[in-house]
């Protein structure tokens, strides 16, 4: 992939000019707060950050030709439990988010942006990457709004 596209995707994944970096959105949150419910919000921080991560891994694996697209039944990716069971589980999850971000950036230069994935509505690799960027942006902003409602967001 051309360097200009690689840089654009990197900036998009980190929220440059549009939203906080997904890692910044969960930094400074303890595991108890990650599982707290707030009236008017459908999901917890734990559920939203897991959804971001699960979706990202799906797209990464698809771009690496390692898996087919998920079925409609599998296309939800929200954990049932409200929060992590321990600080260790929360920290492990946050580390996996960092790893996923690194893995995407590592293989960006090797992706043919025009490669089509016919089994998923014939979208291209670039389409998949843009879906990932916009999906992360949307849910990262939900995390920020939820943190504000919980009173744990730095202004």
Task: Please describe the structure with a list of short key phrases separated by commas or semicolons.
Four Helix Bundle (Hemerythrin (Met), subunit A); single chain; 155 residues; two-stranded antiparallel ribbon; mainly alpha; 6 helices
Structure description:
The longest helix has 26 residues. By secondary structure, the chain is mostly helical. The N and C termini lie far apart (37 Å). It is globular, with a radius of gyration of 16 Å. It has one domain: Four Helix Bundle (Hemerythrin (Met), subunit A) (Up-down Bundle). β1 and β2 form a beta hairpin. It contains six helices and two strands. A two-stranded antiparallel ribbon has the order 1-2. 56% of the residues lie in helices and 3% in strands. α4 packs parallel to α5.
In short, what is this structure?
The protein is mainly alpha-helical. The protein has helices at 3-14, 22-26, 31-34, 45-63, 87-107, 125-150, and strands at 116-117, 123-124. It contains six helices and two strands, in the order H-H-H-H-H-E-E-H.
């Amino acid at each position: 992939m051309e360097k200009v596209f690689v840089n654009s995707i990197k900036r998009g994944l980190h929220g440059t000019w549009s939203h906080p970096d997904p890692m910044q959105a969960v930094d400074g949150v303890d595991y108890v707060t990650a599982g707290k419910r707030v009236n008017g919000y459908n999901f917890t921080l734990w559920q939203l950050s897991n959804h971001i991560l699960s979706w990202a891994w799906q797209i990464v694996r698809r771009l690496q030709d390692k898996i087919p697209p998920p079925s409609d039944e599998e296309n939800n990716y929200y954990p049932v439990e409200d929060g992590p069971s321990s600080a260790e589980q929360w920290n492990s999850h946050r580390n996996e988010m960092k790893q996923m971000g690194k893995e995407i950036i590592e293989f960006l230069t090797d992706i043919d942006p025009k490669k089509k994935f016919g089994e998923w509505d014939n979208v291209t690799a670039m389409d998949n990457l843009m879906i990932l960027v916009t999906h992360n942006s949307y849910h990262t902003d939900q995390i920020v709004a939820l943190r504000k409602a919980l009173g744990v967001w730095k202004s």
